[in-house]
């Protein structure tokens, strides 16, 4: 084991969705179809119910925005699941390739892998905790409110967990129980696949970053061996070629990450502005109870963490890939290198001038994109607040 809880959250969340990441064949990835497809179907039906609710209340922007945040997250979760199922072979190949690389790391390279995976465990655990807390308040809030009102007024008041069109009488307990179970299955899919895909992304980026660190270490080790005179020219050239081959392998992993996550990232950032806007706008208005406010607050925190996971890790991939050229330049004593070695080292240096970037089809994922999303959301919130003031 590289570190404690290594790849634990990823395996746990995917297993909750009926998916086995240890599968070697794409046909065997979905091990429990009921856990995978039944909540997905309920989530799709829930999205339809939310769309119908928004259409019925289309002239009331308050009702529409209240339902839009969950609609965005549900739509994104469904999209993530569909993309994963379609590209599952690519996901599985990347996971196995990185795990194989980690198992082959040398004694001096293991601390780099441990450091990156410790970072991944920290980020994944924080995200996991915040999301589960928001789920607790999502389903706990209506129950706590119902118990409070029943104790204080002896009247049973049943508030829907989320605003949507439910096509039966849900004012009484039997009908409400069906709605509650429907919501639970829908949110089960939303939470499971969101946690699974997002934490897998951080794990993949952390281990690709570890590969870049190992690459720089190997270049430095090769330079040190040449300076000490322990390598002859032939062995020195062979070591450089081995480093160049490892560099190409790492760059291919970054490209594969783009291939499997490109569409997910695109849809994520397209809808994030509206989602954040709706959540902040809801928090800026009076809320039914403290538990409902806590749910909205943790929901917003989950969305913000989800965004920073992608933007921060996209920035890391870019920075690590650009750092290779600098590390090579400072590692070698260029005045004593043979001309043939200088020419050979120019290949990875020139390639490192072009950053490995995570792209969401039309945009690059980095920290500037994170700021852009919140600035755009801020503009939308200002527009909604203006509408609210004019309405009053």
Describe this structure in a few short sentences.
With 392 residues, the protein is mainly alpha-helical.
Describe this structure in words.
There is one protein chain. The chain is mostly helical and 392 residues long. 78% of the residues lie in helices and 0% in strands. The radius of gyration is 25 Å and the shape is elongated. It is a multi-pass membrane protein.
Would you spell out the secondary-structure blueprint of this structure?
Elements: H1 8-16, H2 33-56, H3 61-86, H4 88-103, H5 110-153, H6 173-228, H7 233-283, H8 290-331, H9 339-351, H10 367-391
Q: Which series of helices and strands comes N to C?
A: HHHHHHHHHH
Helical run tally: 10
**How much helicity do the residues have?**
over 70%
Low-confidence stretches: none
Shape: elongated
Organism: Calliphora stygia
Membrane topology: Multi-pass membrane protein
InterPro entries: 7tm6_olfct_rcpt
Pfam families: 7tm_6
